[in-house]
């Protein structure tokens, strides 16, 4: 998992990109911290949104991930709404 994914996860949990960045930076050494500071807030917001979208599109029966445009689960065949 890369920095962006972790930040997106934290942003979701804390409700704010700034809070997520602060919390994440507190765990990192200087090199990683510097890399995290170069990630724009927009990218974190976009990743957090993508993450929520992905979380929403799971098969209701077997829990398999459904691609955004897929309307039928490829694992169990259940039709998505
Ligand atoms: Zn399924």
Give the helices and strands, then pairings:
Blueprint (H helix, E strand, L loop, with lengths): L2 H12 L2 H9 L4 H8 L3 H16 L25
The structure holds zinc ion.
Textual characterization of the structure:
The protein is mainly alpha-helical. It is built from four helices and no strands. The longest helix has 16 residues. The radius of gyration is 16 Å and the shape is elongated. The two termini are 30 Å apart. The structure holds zinc ion.
Task: Give a brief outline of the structure.
The chain is an all-alpha fold.
Strand content: under 5%
Instruction: Tell me the overall shape.
Output: elongated
Give me the Rg, rounded: 16 Å
Distinct ligands, ions and cofactors found in the model:
zinc ion
Give the class from helix and strand content and strand pairing: mainly alpha
Q: Uncertain runs with pLDDT below 50, 5 residues or more?
A: none
Average pLDDT, all residues? 89
Task: Please estimate the helix content.
Answer: 55-70%
Largest sheet: none
Number of strands: 0
Q: What's the helix-strand series?
A: HHHH
Oligomeric status of the shown chains? single chain
* Count of discrete alpha- or pi-helical segments spanning 4 or more residues: 4
Ends distance: 30 Å
């Amino acid at each position: 998992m890369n920095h962006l994914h972790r930040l997106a996860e934290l942003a979701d949990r804390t409700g704010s990109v700034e809070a997520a960045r602060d919390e994440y930076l507190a765990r990192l050494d200087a090199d990683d911290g510097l890399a995290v500071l170069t990630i724009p807030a927009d990218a974190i917001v976009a990743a957090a949104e993508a993450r929520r979208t992905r979380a929403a599109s799971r098969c209701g029966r077997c829990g398999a991930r459904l691609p955004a445009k897929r309307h039928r689960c490829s694992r169990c065949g259940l039709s998505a709404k």
